[in-house]
Specification:
Length: about 400
Amino acid sequence: MASRKDGVFRFRSSVFVLPFFHSSNLPRFRLCCIMTIDIIDPIAYPGWDQQVLRLSGCSFFHSSAWARVLSESYGFRPLYFTIFDSGLLSACLPVMEIDSFLTGRRGVSLPFTDYCEPLVSADGQFEELLREATAYGANKGWKSLELRGGGSFLGCNPSSSTYLLHTLDLSSGRAHSANPQLNLSSQPSNFLSFQSSGSAPPFSTFRESTRRNIRKASENGVRVEISTTEQSVRQFYKLNQMTRKDHGLPPQPYRFFEEIHEHVISKGCGFVAVAFQEKTPIAASVYFHFGRFAIYKYGASDKRYRHLRPNNLVMWEAIRWYIENGYASLSLGRTDLGHEGLRQFKNGWGVMEQTLSYYRYTFKTGAFVRNDNEKINGIGSRVASLAPLPVLRAVGSLLYRHMG
């Protein structure tokens, strides 16, 4: 039964017996309690960030800022399936609805997101949230529901795609500050003084080639500025266009990064680290943070200066900042299985590497299936290999809102 009050949809579930399986593969049963499922728009929900930060496993991608960026950039509709207990958030399955004439109407958890684990605090909650999400999708004519994570719940189902996830533990650095400082300056950092200060993980935790590349960048006069200015976003975007073209992909529209600056970076939830050779920006990366957890989201560089190894110095200075400001971990994001160069770069920082699985539920079959080969990326790659940047920007503006 569903009702709507104050802009929140509510679903009252009945008590039912749900089969589940132990390692013995023998079916057993448990009695699920009555649960109220609320469909929340985190952009409009008061105090959403404080609520979600209470749940173990939350990340920046669960925040209202990321929901706002996706919704305002591409028109995706937030549908966060939630369970509240005595007014406190107890479980959450974030979903956004994409309505596209190219890829169909579907749910994604979440578009343009490296990973988005379902958040639960009690047994049976994930199954209930998934049941309501698929019931909602069936009613709305969704083609599929994609989950970018959830392997601990769905491991017995086929994954639609598999990636690698790399995470750096920052706890071996200096003691965490009680109140991380989120007001950033645009002053260049001093690599050599920081190296000797003892406030970062020692170089011995990094691969020798990584240490050598950091030294090389510093000795060749590369400097890094950590900034929250709109100018730094524009500097990143110029490099991003070049990098995407090198990879055979159109860039995302600049409006997307304008929204990131407005709703994330300018609000103290991220920054841009830009490497300069004299006055020329030669590499830049975008980082987000939420609670005590951070993520390296986007990186770009001018290949003419790659021999100076600016990407290594950019990453090092970001690590430095996050340790100085008391963060617990830095995710280096998703890596395609076939992208060995990027994998080696990330592994050079002494990260933990683990498998990340995506799952796609199709409403046609009523089951989770392997990749169904919806490949808009292939179209973009063929166009990008031939087209000039103005054409690529137009292609990106057209295609990305259909992809997610």
